[in-house]
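W.,

You were right to be curious about this one. When I first looked at the sequence I had no strong expectations either way, so I just let the prediction run and decided to look at it fresh. Below is the sequence, 198 residues in total, followed by the output.
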Amino acid sequence: MSREEEQQKRALRAELRERRQLLSPAQREAAAAGLTAQLDALVAAHEAISVSCYLSSTTEPGTWEFVQRAVERGIRVLLPITRADGLLDWAVADDSGDVAEGLFGLPEPTGEVLGPIAVNDVDLMIIPAAAVDLTGTRLGWGRGYFDKTIGSMEGCPPVYAVVYDSEVLDSLPREVHDQPVNGVVTPTRTIRISPAQA
């Protein structure tokens, strides 16, 4: 990717981060409720009994209620734990509500740590994003954790990125290492992206 494209990605991330910080508590709460309903429906549609998700930060679309409800329904939910080497460990979500601050100040689970390959057994992956376009290109926050994870999986399950409605864009710059997603989930809709495009 050229220096100009990299600067465009940096500028876009900064703009998206700023927009997220301007959302009111009521807007965040409404978005979390909508997202929970969309994710519940997605899990049901895939008949998933094991999923990976993440604990959202205060500015991200809220995933906490979805995780809690999934655990209550007996779905095995793996949550990521960041490592200094750029890989993700995983822990099984439980109903304790115990969390710790991860490597980048984000909330992470405190349960038994499973290695990077633990995620190979999930039926569905739900991952964070800054933005997603309609071809399945995902713009992350620039650390590459999920691209590395998805790229290393032999039988990768469907991968859905979570964003706010305004973060579904027509197109995004794509680098060689960027892993496409199969769909995007927002507080109001779930968009499945054709495998031919992804």
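Here's what jumped out at me. The mean pLDDT is 90. And, maybe more interesting for your project: The radius of gyration is 16 Å.

Coffee later to discuss?

I.
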